[in-house]
Amino acid sequence: MNGPTHTPESAAPGRKLHALDNLRAAMMWLGIVLHVSVIYMSRPSPLPWHDDLSTSVADLLVAVIHAFRMPLFFILAGFFVSALVQHRGLAGMVRNRLRRLGLPFVVFWPPLLAVSALLGLLFLHRMAHGTWGVDRSLLPHGPNVPKGPPTMHLWFLWMLLWLAVFTPVVWAAARALPGGVQKALGRFAAWLGGSALGVVALTLPLAWIGAHYDHGIVTPSGSFLPPLAEWLHNGLFYGFGLCLYTQRRDLMVRYARHWPVLAGLGLVCFLITAFLSEVLAQPEASAFALVLVTGAFTEILAEPVSATRHLQFWMALAYNAASWLWSFALIGLFLRHVGQPRAWLAYLADSSYWVYLVHLPLTIGFGALLYGVPIPVLAKMALNVLATTALCLASYHLCVRFTAVSQWLNGRRHTRKSFGDSVHAT
Fold first, then answer.
1. Cα(100)–Cα(213) distance, rounded to whole angstroms?
2. Which residue from 58, 23, 49, 70 is spatially nearest to 217, judged by alpha carbons?
3. CA angle 54, 57, 60 (to 5 degrees)
4. What pLDDT was estimated at residue 164?
5. What is the mean pLDDT of the chain?
6. pTM check: above 0.85
7. Whole-number Å distance between alpha carbons of 204 and 243
8. CB neighbours of 418 closer than 8 A, spacing ≥ 6?
9. Which in 1, 53, 224, 299 has the greatest CB count within 10 A?
10. pLDDT confidence bin for 415, thresholds 50/70/90
11. What is the DSSP letter of 250?
12. Average pLDDT for residues 391-397, to the nearest whole number?
């Protein structure tokens, strides 16, 4: 394919950082849409509280956003960790990650857990009795309920913190290899991220892991001790991000040039996932579909559970292929079109970390307020998203942007412009 002569590589390096920073911010902001949609799913929800109305639109939003949001988060996290190592060294990178990830987790997790638990109990009381109240007996029980306090949506910070802490070990081991081996590994990383067979190779281990999960999709447990499958699943995306920084000159040009093709191929894989999901939900069709895929007549008749496992493998293969392809496409899209510095994009990027931290209890609270309100379900979703967004932005502007909290979360503290400064700027 012949792309335009202007590529992100010909632009200033700062343009790439703007693009990827904006992309990371967009993924953080999408958390509002994701966690609002979970409340209105028609399929079984991963959370105990849900609205009295549901819609398949919410199911679609959750499935699509989940396909690329966290994989892309971990890819970008690995990319920026690698950049930090290049500029500050391994010790400087670890200090930075402890300050930017570890400290916010320690400070924000306890109050967010308390507020989210209280609002969740109020929501459950509304569902059970139609009134406001707190009743701990309404909490779900069973083997699938995590034991101990959950990390909630902050599980990403928790896992990423440990991945960053252990990165120096992997980094030192890689640097200890002979130069020829290091170059060969670099070429291998470029092949993985820049070819069709490479994407298949990246997807196969994720499919093997996903085959052990319902519908082939790895979902976070929210535990302080996540299962090995979660470390392997998310660690692969993070590890690729580490390599992407070293191969950025080649791979980023490809992603920016071919992002529409990558997005289209990702859509095809996602549609295959949707088809297999419908088949998996109908046991009588599962055996027939597996025959079409594998021809395993004897195994189907003898071990129906194994047949389901096979379908989950193929579903995980298609879903994770979509994750890789959409992640590459979004990187290319933002490099091509969202790399120019703009004031409103910078504002949203600066506010995104704060929004990521505080948005979850707001979506629960507004969900509880809207429970039973006689309006269409899509209107409820829109109101919840808008109200959560407005309150997040207001709290950021009033409590964070011009305070030491901004210095802590974003590395800089903004100054308020006086009226005289604004007139002079004009």
1. 32
2. 70
3. 120
4. 95
5. 86
6. yes
7. 19
8. none
9. 53
10. confident
11. H
12. 96
